[in-house]
Amino acid sequence: MPMRSGPEIPSPSVHHQHQMIRNNIIHRVTDLVGDTWTLRVIGRLLGGAQRFDVLAYSLDIPRSTLSARLRLLAEQHCLERKKNATSGEAAYVLTEQGRGLWMLLRQMQQWNQRWHVGCALLAEEAAVSSCGHGAPLHLCCGQCMAPAEPRAMKLLLTHRFPPEAMAVSARRARDLTSSEQQLQLSAEQLMGDRWTGLILGAAFLGVHRFSEFEQALGIATNILSGRLARLTQQGMLERVQDSDTSERHVYRLTLRGLSYYPVIVAALAWGERWLEPHYDPGWRVLHSPCLEWFTPSFVCEQCGCAQT
């Protein structure tokens, strides 16, 4: 239902904004695919690789690491382990849920190509859209089909805001190596470092101050300091003086950071489709230009067809 035809809905307070971030499905998505190796394994599976040896060789991944990632994906219903009827060899086949991660990897690959970082997550044939084209897919509002810019989105509360926050996983994010910290990180590395991905997600939800990141994410101050410094060094955030007080600074998304928005939206869309919790999250996103609730649509640059 269009927002303009309904009752007035309040904007969230700072407290509610923090709770919205803690309740966000992005936590569960990053718990599952917020790992660089997992994303690369999914990319190979989407490209048609099914045998363990083929995956290990093409990714140059330790066999124990590959076994662990395949086991995790199977436990989360993203793939099935089947046996070849003739040879008896094990084959790893993505389920519908696993194949649904294609758009996330496609958006990651586009971001990498735009900023000339990383390697191809998807082989050329696997990157072809359902319309048959390999052209870029642009994020649009599914209601008015205008380009979906993050600054045109407004968070609004609904009347069923959950009283308790979703627990944040205690899984430890992998520290980047010294060489990785010097290089420009790829999209999968940004999401593969769990705290980095969550900080970017919070920034898109309107968090700007150090104390706000700390309270919203429940992150230790030393970890937060390191991740904010890294994101600033990577050109994803800029540290500027707070307009409210000259004694503090805020962190704003740069053009490079803002261009990561389709990756975040694709991750959220997959999570809401497959990992949706059993409660109303208590908030929705309004696309301000058309005053409709935002539903994402990824549109082929070549033919204009919306992709699924």
From TrEMBL:
InterPro entries cross-referenced by the UniProt entry: HTH_HxlR, WH-like_DNA-bd_sf, WH_DNA-bd_sf
Domain HTH hxlR-type per the UniProt entry, residue ranges: 23-120, 179-279
Keywords noted in UniProt: DNA-binding, Transcription, Transcription regulation
GO MF, one annotated term: DNA binding
PROSITE patterns the record matches: HTH_HXLR
Protein name, per record: HTH hxlR-type domain-containing protein
Presence of the UniProt keyword Metal-binding in the record: no
Record flagged with keyword Transcription: yes
Gene3D superfamilies with a match to the protein in the record: Winged helix-like DNA-binding domain superfamily/Winged helix DNA-binding domain
